[in-house]
Amino acid sequence: MTAITPDLLEDIRSRFAHVEDCPFTGPRVFFENAGGALTLKSVVETSARFAAIPDNQGRDNAASAALGEIIAKAREDAALFLNAPGGKVFVGESGTELLFRLIADACLGSAGGTVLGSTVEHPASRSACARWADVSGKRHVLIAHDDATGTVSAESYAAEVTEDVAVATILHTSPVTGMGMDVPAIAAAIRAKAPEALIIVDGIQHACHGGIDIAACDIDGYVISPYKVFSRHGYGLAWASDRLTALRHDALIGAPEGSWELGTRDTGAYATFSDVVEYFEWLGGEVSDATEPRARIEAAGRAIHEHEARLTQAMLHGTGNLPGLAEMPGVGVVGGIDNPAREGLVSFWADGHASAELVRALADQGIRVHTRKADHYSGNVLTPLGKSDCVRVSLCHYNTEAEVAAFLSAMQRILG
């Protein structure tokens, strides 16, 4: 396997829209990928093409049949991307909406007294668990994450899981700390004491970094937001196991058994996810000798992880003659400096500088980043650290070391 070379990186960047410029403000470095990754140009073209088609699925005509085939292929592509055996792939309003639906059905359709999650989770899963645990008469238990590392471990789950756990949730990667969790190990810890638990994973932040393998995880649900993995806004994508699908859920009377979707779907949404999978396959072929589609997807995930690790190392420890964040006086990093769980994201604060002011100052120098506040989105991580806010710098594999250098140079000027 080969790394992402400068020539390949140039090819990668050519496949995305607005890599170097914002259509509203002009040239900029895009380090706000956790808020929504850049969009593949093929996705833009596919969206426009399908937006113009007036036909719907389920009609007795050639156009309708073609749309059905495109949806079926996209479901197969998504299952390949997720390495999902059996179960159902379907789209919904958003990743958050799909987490609510899967968690609601799991809570209402299961026996047992406990819904188990962790404090590192995004409010999409925590809020859904809080609501539906209450509605279904279950306890909602949250395992404390490790403030120092920004993670929750399999050992922490093992210490808290009980035999009566009916539903459990896992966050694959945190959009605040940037750290990935060991989903297979956590799922195994849950199954060791509660083998029948329905396990649902929030993979929204993780998906753009590659490396999803549902077959290796022994879970029942996995949800992503395609706009965070090179597609577009307007839909979420979920996988549900056969036993989760078999539970009662919202459906039209007389609808086909096992159908999750409500109403006519946007064929273009499905088709754009095929574009995403095709991109991962292409990238995997560029960085490896693999010929099978799944092997190429796995190779792409490894290359993405390695490239992003190099970028975050440069951001933390410096590049060229520029010092990294770890060497800048008064700068603290969420989750610590050298954390092997980090996935393409660095959240930091600088003593004496409000995060919102840093974000504005960076924007003035052409660097797009984001503020995280101790609110309902990020307070679970920031409040225990005694911080009211932080700056989130989120990278992706199409970013360059030169862009990291531009960020560090700007930080030097801002901090004086």
From TrEMBL:
<dbReference type="InterPro" id="IPR015422">
    <property type="entry name" value="PyrdxlP-dep_Trfase_small"/>
</dbReference>
<dbReference type="InterPro" id="IPR015424">
    <property type="entry name" value="PyrdxlP-dep_Trfase"/>
</dbReference>
<dbReference type="InterPro" id="IPR000192">
    <property type="entry name" value="Aminotrans_V_dom"/>
</dbReference>
<keyword id="KW-0456">Lyase</keyword>
<feature type="domain" description="Aminotransferase class V">
    <location>
        <begin position="29"/>
        <end position="407"/>
    </location>
</feature>
<dbReference type="Pfam" id="PF00266">
    <property type="entry name" value="Aminotran_5"/>
</dbReference>
<protein>
    <submittedName>
        <fullName>Selenocysteine lyase</fullName>
    </submittedName>
</protein>
<dbReference type="GO" id="GO:0016829">
    <property type="term" value="F:lyase activity"/>
</dbReference>
<keyword id="KW-0663">Pyridoxal phosphate</keyword>
<dbReference type="InterPro" id="IPR015421">
    <property type="entry name" value="PyrdxlP-dep_Trfase_major"/>
</dbReference>
